[in-house]
């Protein structure tokens, strides 16, 4: 007759054995370790300093001290000493520190799947709800204070795919189930960010062209392009200014450009008008005008020291030039050299749009 059981090696009481209680108690102690196996932890390599009788641990690999050489065994603190029970393949234990069920495969302990599901059971599910109930069209629904998507060793990329260009692939931000912001590919392949006060009326703030990468701000006023500078007005008669002498301190001009609108100021004081004859024109405007034949009447122009002047005015003509004219009760006539003297003082302010 064998002296111990086949599986747990529990000692049998032998015929005519003395002190039978010793053998019986030894078997009970072995059962007390293995039955309903629950251990405090499985990650310790040395015993605790103040164990409580009945404490059980699974000895972690590379143990030392009083646990040396007992890797994977169940350590029991009983009657002031550590006793060790080697695990057999198929044993199951509950680890209290981890709230985890583990199993022994003959070499090591591993966590067990206690759900009763296999990996294939989690494929092609009609809906998944985490903390909530999922329903179409939100067949994946999560109710939580946060969601974490992390890498599995290197990169991590989230993909939102749509069927075709007219469809939508986007992130929608809601407040009390009303949409107030959305970014993505909304009905086009261009990337856009838009907002809404009520979830119905939407305003696009940023639009990025999918083909060129050009960025536009559809609802942002154009930026102000501002420039200030100086220019030198050239007074000519018939396209020439032979012998003309300007007073140095009064031969200058300034301009202010705001986007495509230019305001120019000019001052021309003659010390000699020269010998050229013909129509009076001020040339060398700082920018070409968008339109010509634009009239700017008397209040914008001042001429003194001239001859036969009633209501002087000006207009823009091609090649960035200002044509001067005189108005009377009978009509308008262009100014010529005859209207100027050697002491004429010409000042004007004009505003026009760029080409």
Descriptive account of the structure:
- This protein is mainly beta.
- The chain folds into 3 domains: 36-111, no CATH class; 173-220, no CATH class; 226-353.
- The protein contains 1 helix and 25 strands.
- The longest helix is centred in the first third of the chain and has 15 residues, at 20-34.
- It starts with 19 loop residues before the first helix and ends with a strand.
- 15% of the residues are buried.
- Residues 295-299 have low confidence and may be disordered.
> Uncertain regions: pLDDT < 50 for 5+ in a row?
295-299
Give the overall average pLDDT: 86
Q: What share of residues is helical?
A: under 10%
Class from secondary-structure proportions: mainly beta
**Discrete helix count:** 1
Instruction: Please give the radius of gyration in angstroms.
Output: 49 Å
Sheet with the most strands? 6 strands, antiparallel
Whole-number count of domains:
3
N- and C-termini, Cα separation: 115 Å
- Oligomerization: single chain
Per DSSP E runs of 2 or more residues, the count of β-strands stands at 25
Shape verdict: rod-shaped
The amount of beta strand, in percent, is 35-45%
SSE sequence, one letter per element: HEEEEEEEEEEEEEEEEEEEEEEEEE
């Amino acid at each position: 007759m064998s002296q111990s059981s086949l599986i747990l090696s529990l000692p049998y009481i032998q015929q005519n054995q003395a002190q039978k209680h010793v053998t019986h108690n030894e078997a009970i102690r072995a059962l007390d370790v293995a039955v309903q196996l629950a251990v405090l932890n499985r990650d310790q390599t040395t015993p605790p300093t103040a164990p409580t009788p009945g404490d059980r641990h699974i000895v972690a690999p590379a143990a030392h001290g009083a646990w040396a050489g007992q890797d994977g065994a169940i350590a029991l603190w009983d009657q002031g000493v550590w006793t060790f029970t080697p695990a057999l393949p198929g044993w199951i234990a509950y680890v209290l520190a981890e709230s985890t069920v583990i199993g022994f495969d003959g070499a090591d302990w591993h966590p067990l799947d206690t759900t009763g599901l296999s990996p294939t059971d989690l494929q092609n599910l009609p809906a998944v709800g985490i903390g909530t109930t999922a329903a179409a069209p939100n067949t994946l629904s999560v109710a939580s204070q946060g969601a974490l998507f992390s890498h599995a060793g290197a990169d991590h990329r989230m993909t939102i795919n749509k069927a075709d260009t007219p469809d939508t692939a986007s992130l929608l931000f809601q407040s009390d189930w009303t949409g107030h912001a959305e970014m993505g590919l909304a009905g086009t392949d261009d990337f856009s960010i838009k907002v809404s006060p009520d979830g119905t009326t939407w305003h696009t703030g940023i639009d990025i062209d999918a083909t060129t990468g050009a960025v536009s701000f559809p609802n942002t006023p154009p930026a102000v392009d501002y420039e200030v500078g100086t220019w030198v007005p050239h007074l000519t008669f018939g396209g020439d200014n032979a012998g003309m002498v300007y007073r140095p301190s009064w031969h200058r001009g300034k301009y202010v450009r705001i986007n495509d609108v230019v305001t120019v100021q000019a001052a021309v004081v003659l010390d000699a008008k020269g010998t050229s004859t013909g129509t009076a024109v001020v040339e060398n405007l700082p920018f070409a005008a968008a339109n010509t034949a634009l009239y700017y009447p008397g209040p914008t122009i001042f001429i003194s020291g001239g001859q036969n002047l009633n209501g002087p005015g000006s207009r823009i003509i091609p090649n960035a030039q200002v044509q001067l004219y005189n108005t009377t009760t009978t009509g308008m006539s262009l100014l010529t050299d005859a209207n100027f003297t050697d002491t004429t003082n010409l000042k004007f302010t004009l505003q026009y749009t760029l080409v």
